[in-house]
Amino acid sequence: MKRALIAAVLAMTLGAGLSWAKLPAPPAQTDEQKAVAEAAKAKKAEADKKDADNLSKAQDRAAENFKRNQARGKTTATAKAPAAAAPAVGAAVSK
Known about the structure:
With 95 residues, this protein is mostly helical. It has helices at residues 2-19, 31-72. 63% of the residues lie in helices and 0% in strands.
């Protein structure tokens, strides 16, 4: 019992020491790496702008479709009759 307790305390002490260890700082970027990162950032910004424009166009089409269907008197969501309630758990089933 005492050996297990001592082993557990020793393991926790070593684990705590390792958790305070720090990783070394990353090496400084070269000018070439900075240029590549800047180009990737610009490319991502361009793609994000294009995605936002496509989303805006899709939302405009959806809104126009909704308005067109509302003018015709159609509803976009179909109303279904509620399903029959399932019997309660443990309820007796009559035959």
